[in-house]
Every structure is written in structure tokens, then in C-alpha cells.
Amino acid sequence: MDGVEPDAHETPAADASRSRRREVHGGRPRWRRRLAIGLVALVVVGGAGGAVAAWRLNSNITKVDVSGALGTDRPTSAPQARGAVNILLVGSDTREGDGNDAIGKVVEDPGQHSDTNLLVHLSKDRSWATVVSIPRDSMTKAPPECSPTAPKDQWVTRQWNHNYKIGGIGCLIRTLEGNTGVRVDHYGVVDFRGFQSMVDALGGVPVCTREAIDDKESGLRLSAGTHTLQGKQALAYVRTRKSVGDGSDLGRIQRQQAFLSSIAQKATSSQLLFQPTRLYGFLDAATRSLTTDPEFGLGTMKDLAESVRGIGLDNIEFVTVPNEAYEPDPNRVQWQESAQVIWTAFREDRRLGQEPEATASPSPTASPLTVSPDDVRVEVRNGSGASGLASQAGAALAVQGFTVTATGNGERRTGTLVEYGAGQEEAARTVAAAFPGATLEEASGLGRTVRVTLGAGSENVVEVENRTGTKALPDQPVSAPKPAPTPTPTIEARPADADICGA
After folding, report:
1. Could you tell me which of 265, 232, 249 has the C-alpha nearest to residue 501?
2. How far apart are CA 210 and CA 362, in angstroms?
């Protein structure tokens, strides 16, 4: 396949494991690895406030500015989602450094990868949070050589965790934003050593196994039943696969989900929060393990923690990007179209399953138009699949005085999207008035140009009230196709308060 980068070689056992993953798609819950501890750590870190030496904890955190790798075409939040926060938590499989080098080298695919990828959405009103797990072997479009300037029509297909290997967290964020339209506000990275340290600082974490485990690779031995695992044991537990059940990822997914529920329950329990010595030890371990953006220091974490203090574990849900086998390589996966349900909900700050508000997009003609069409530059894109729709719309705009700078194809979508740069909202309202039902959205990198993307279900151009000229609108024989039915996938979620011995 053109534009597809080669994958790393896999062992036969790994291939068999990945093939099994094809059975786990359509929104079925998957594993939640050690990085969920990072989420819990971020919340608990802030909750400590002045009870600990904040200056020391803040100095523990490694801060890296990756803004130069993110490009200038980053997505912006919809008006109703401003105030919501999206945090990307990454688990690195680096073997470098004390505590990581003992894990063992990966000969067939050296270097560090984003072993775990969790996108956390904290709602605007801080009443709920959703954590989305992105499979590390997802095949998606990505910027070539992690270029911050390469346009999306030049992006190549690449395995998800290789973005981190090639270009670090900056490349991973740019890839995520480009594929989802969700802006990442902050990021945090933790490694094997950090995972073990935080589990130890918690005093161990309870796990529940239905069968005995004797894993020769990790040295982990457990009888069936409930056990409290320390850091090294816990790391082996969440990484064990071949020696349990059928050796597939499916069994490991279930164990990791239960482990995250257990650690979240223990980290947020009063047993920890009201024992200052243990709490400080956990916070010290948590901050030492973190690499974040410069703005995501202890102060920001504290503010976020205070704002989400009322969220119960039953309002924190874990889901996985709906996926299916990737046809060129069935040992990899690709996202299903229904994944857009998740990204749209994040962009609009909605819980999964919650219907969008009918008033989410105010009418562009609610008040008189203040910018004349002859003062507006417009670019028209066709995201509907109907050939000639953009050119037809451009001609109907031009006779009304608009300056049409370009027409062409755009990303597939439903409805009409009118995007505008900072300070161009009134110009955008004039453009939107020509497209009944259009949605307005601020975007970066447009300057004074207003961009229109016509999707399935878009209406043809109508006259605007302050048009210039008297020439009649040209015929518009091309119509956008009717939108496909809204996908209604079953995206199952696991609440953080789930029983660790449950299925």
C-alpha cells in the first residue's frame, strides 16, 4: 500500500495474540494499562495542596515544551466545550534508566514507544470524566517524519506507537489531533519505573485472578484468588499474557481493566488521603515519574483536582476506540467509523450516549449581518462525495459579491461547516447565512479567509440579505447526498468503581 511505513517484526506468539484482537472490536472494553495510575496520581497530587512540600513535588516533574512539533493548524474547542480539559497520558516502554533497564531489551523493535495511550476528557462542569484507550497497534494517518508543517493530504499510514518512537510526544499529539479534531490541552508521560514506584507507595494493590499464574518470563507466580501485589509483581501482572488462559490479549485486557479499577479505588480512598506520610510518599513517587508540558505543573494539577473533587468513581468511565482488523496486516487494527462518535462527543463536551443539544449551533442570522459579501474571502471544500458541489456553491457565492479564493475536495463530513479565524466571526456569519443550517466554528491558520466544507445533507446556496449585485443565482443541479444514518455502536464502558473480581 502506498504511503504505508513498514512495521516492526513480530514473534509468532505476538502475531497470534494480535490476531485474537480482531475478535475484540466494535467498542468492546479493552485493557487499561499502568498509565491509569498517572490519571489517579494527577488528581491526588493536586488534592494534597499545602499539606506537602509543594515546591519539592513540583521540582520532581520533568517539563518538556513540544509546541514547535504541533503545527499551526491545531483544532480549537467548540463554544460549548470551552472549559473542558483533554489530557493525553502516555506509558513509555523505554528500557533506559534505573528501574527500566531490568525489564529486558526488545531486540526486534528497539527504541521507546507509547506502550499505553489514554486520552482523558474532564467535562466543563467537572461532573464526569471519560478515559479513551487507543490501541498501540492502531494504523492511522500520521505526518511524514513527524513534520509539523506537512498538510494532511500528504500524511502516511503508520502504526500508532511508532509516532512516539520517531518524534516523541509532540508527534503523537499532532497525530491524535489530526485524526480526531480533539485538541490536547496537557500531556503526561510515565515509565515502568514510575509505575512500580507508585504501586509500592500505595502499599500494594489488590488483584483477583481466577486461575493460578506461573509466568516463566516475568517470574510471577500467583495462586488463584485475591492477592496484594507490590510494584515489581504488579508490573509483571499487567504485562503477563502467554502463561494465562489462551495466551491472548483478551484475557490480559480483562485483568488490566480490573487492576485499574483496583488502583483507582485504593488511590482515592480515605485510607491513603488521611495518612500524610503515605500520601506524601505516593505524591513523591507520582511526580518523579512524570514528564509533562510546561503548563502542567503542580499548580495546574491542584486546580484541576479541586475542580473535580465531587466526581465519584462511578462517573469515571473507561472505553476503547472501536476498532477492527487492518486488512493489509490482520495483526494490526484500524479504527472503525463509529470512533467518530467518541471524538464528536469530546469536541462537544458530551457524555457518550448523550444527545447533542438542539441549540448547539446558533442561527447565523439571529441578528443583522454586519459584513458585506464583497469584504469576505471564501474557500469552499466538498466533503459530501457529490462531484461538482464545491464549484457550484462557489459560483452561487461569487454572484453575490463574495471573493471565492479556491474550491476543492475536503474531509468527509455531515452538514455544512463554516470555519473562521480569530476576529472573523462576523464575516463568517455572512457566509453561513448562504448555507441554511450551517455550523460555525473558530479555527486556526485561516487568516481572513472563511472556509466552508459541504458535507452530506448540506443545503444549496441561498441569497444573503446584504448581497451585492442583482444577477440571479445560477442553477444548482448538484445536491449533496442525504447523510448516512448516525452510527449507533455499542460502546461499552467500565466504571472505575467496578468490582475487581467482576468480569
Report:
1. 265
2. 54
The H or E element that residue 406 is part of is strand 403-409
Q: What is the DSSP string of 127-192?
A: S-EEEEE--TTBEEEE-GGG-SS--GGG-EEEEHHHHHHHHHHHHHHHHHHHHH-PPP-EEEEE-H
Pairing type for strands 377-383 and 403-409 reads parallel
Q: What is the b/e burial string over 123-132, where b = at least 16 CB atoms within 10 angstroms of the residue's CB?
A: beebebbbbb
Q: Hey, what amino acid is at 292?
A: T
CATH number 1.10.3720.10 given to 12-355: no
Q: How far apart are CA 218 and CA 196, in angstroms?
A: 14
- Residue 198: closest CA among 45, 32, 30, 310: 45
Q: How far is CA 422 from CA 273, 395, 449, 453, in A?
A: 44, 26, 10, 18
Q: For 113-127, 285-299, 354-368, which range has the lowest pLDDT when averaged over its residues?
A: 354-368
pLDDT for 252: 62
Within 8 A by CB and 6+ apart from 442, the residues are 76, 419, 420, 421, 422, 425
Q: What percent of the chain has pLDDT over 90?
A: 43
Tens digits of residue pLDDT in 316-335: 888 888 888 899 998 888 99
pLDDT score, position 271:
64
- How far, rounded to the nearest angstrom, does the alpha carbon of residue 336 sit from its chain's CA centroid? 15
Question: What does residue 134 show for φ and ψ, rounded to 5 degrees?
Answer: -105, 115
- β-pairing, 156-159 vs 139-142, is antiparallel
What pLDDT does 302 receive?
Answer: 79
Which of residues 230 and 10 earns the better pLDDT score?
230
Cell numbers at residue 448, please?
A: 481572513
Mean pLDDT for the chain overall:
80
Each domain of the chain, given as residue ranges in start order, spans: 12-355, 373-455
Distance, in Å, from the CA atom of 478 to the CA atom of 394, rounded to the nearest integer, reads 13
Enumerate residues 6+ apart whose C-beta is below 8 A from 281. 201
What is the model's pLDDT at position 463?
Answer: 96
Same fold, 12-355 and 373-455: no
d(CA 344, CA 408): 24
373-455 sits in which CATH class? alpha beta
The pTM for the full model equals: 0.66
Q: CB neighbours (10 Å) of residue 353?
A: 10
* Rounded-to-5 percentages of helix, strand, coil across the chain: 35, 20, 45
- Cα–Cα dist 74/443, whole Å: 8
pLDDT, tens digit, 9 for 90 and up, residues 137-181: 889 999 999 999 999 889 999 999 899 999 999 999 999 999 999
